[in-house]
Amino acid sequence: MRILIIFSLMWAGSIAHAADGKLIATPGVSQIEGSAGGGIVPWAQLAGYASRDEIAGNVFCSRGDVSDYRLDVCGAQANFYDRVEFSVAKQRFRINAADLTIRQDVFGIKTRVYGDLVYSRFPQVSLGVMHKRLRDDEIANALGAKRSHGTDFYVAASKLHLGAFAGYNWLWNLTARHTSANELGILGHGGSDQGRRLQLEASTAVLLGRHVAVGVEYRQKPDNLGLGEDDWKDIFVAWIPNKHLNVTAAWLDLGDIAGAKNQRGWYLSVTGNF
Amino acid sequence: MNKLLFTTVLLVVSACSHHNSNASLYQQLGEQEGIEAIVEAFINQIGNDERIFAYFADTHVSRFRDKLILHFCDISDGPCVYDGDNMVDIHTGMNITEGDFNHTVDLLIAAMNEVGVSHRVQNRLLARLAPLRDEMIYI
Ligand code: HEM
């Protein structure tokens, strides 16, 4: 609730002066756990267009729709002086066959520790934390998860190379995440097989103009529950018409999820920046 | 699968962009004439932007124009030698913020769009200018 109030205040304030201190498209979009990133990977960039003297607020909603499941997420981020990002994401994971919904809340903090995506010689580096709490933990418990809540820690490095390929701007991001989450935490944390693990995630994109980016992502996942949890992949195209809006569409390949094979499908995400 | 997709994207991107790859950046910018047009449009953009124009209130525009043309010519490997003040000296005392710097880059992009510099050539010029930012902000 407090967060909501802060966001509405920021939104009201932003009508007078929206943050625009970054090159268009460079902050990325909103990933499914609420952080600035691609679609599934959190990036080193902090959300929105705030420079060191500005504050930015963003709201987003996303949907991933694969064969047997659907994930709906809405959330918000606040970026203070391009130094700290606070984020919250409300996830609703729908199991089509069982007509059942699992809800999870994710609270994130990320801080930029070095550099600037575009301007510094070395990549921008950020440290982040995501705290995840299940609101519906019956399925997680039934599958043998140890806990219904847990915390991910990650370090991310990103760089945008101006004019890298034949004059096109190229972005890459690498993230290492220490986590015990099963399927994002939707199936709880931990299990019989193992506890916390280090997972690697990567994204790369080419900006085809100021307003369009195409890219791919990869996210390694643990298999604590012994259900053959697969790594996730996607290929995306993002459209950034101005510094207030971006729309991202992606093709997802999520592999097997809780025994259901070959989960593939579409992803659509919209973020508003203030 | 990812590697394949990425390679495909790169191939498509580079396939439609191979002309002109041997020309120097100076030539791609349209040589002296092209750079003059960019700087002229850039000065117009600054003149119409309250926030950035504030920095230029006491500036002699004709000197700024000449020196910036020379600077762009030099930095794009053209046949010029920049002889103006160095970047640190000229911008010291202005206390240019990061946001204002980046906003000025937006104005330069707008100027380049106006005179028809292609996206890829724009990025090549920006790539040469970007490393200078650290010498200019908050001083
Ligand atoms: C990469 C970016 C930039 C480059 C390459 C650049 C280059 C130059 C050059 C070549 C001059 C003329 C030097 C001379 O007269 O000897 C100049 C002057 C000036 N620059 Fe920049 N500049 C940049 C960014 C900025 C920004 C972001 C601002 C302010 C927001 C700014 C404000 C000024 C002002 C006010 C002057 C005139 C100083 C005077 O009146 O003597 N510059 N700049």
From TrEMBL, chain A:
Name of the featured protein:
DUF3034 domain-containing protein
Which key words are in the record? Signal
Secretion signal: which residues?
Answer: 1-18
Q: What is the source species? A: Methylophaga lonarensis MPL
Task: Give the classification, highest ranks.
Answer: Bacteria, Pseudomonadati, Pseudomonadota, Gammaproteobacteria, Thiotrichales
User: Which InterPro entries does the record match to this protein?
Assistant: DUF3034
Q: Note the Pfam families from the entry.
A: DUF3034
Automatic annotation (TrEMBL), chain B:
Question: Which organism is this entry from?
Answer: Methylophaga lonarensis MPL
Tagged with keyword Iron? yes
Q: Which residues bind heme?
A: 91
Q: Which CDD domains match?
A: TrHb1_N
This protein's superkingdom?
Answer: Bacteria
- PROSITE patterns named among the record's database cross-references: PROKAR_LIPOPROTEIN
Report what the protein is called.
Cyanoglobin, Hemoglobin-like protein HbN
Q: Which UniProt keywords apply?
A: Heme, Iron, Metal-binding, Transport
Q: Name one GO molecular function term.
A: heme binding
Q: Does the keyword Zinc apply?
A: no
Matching SUPFAM superfamilies, A to Z?
Globin-like
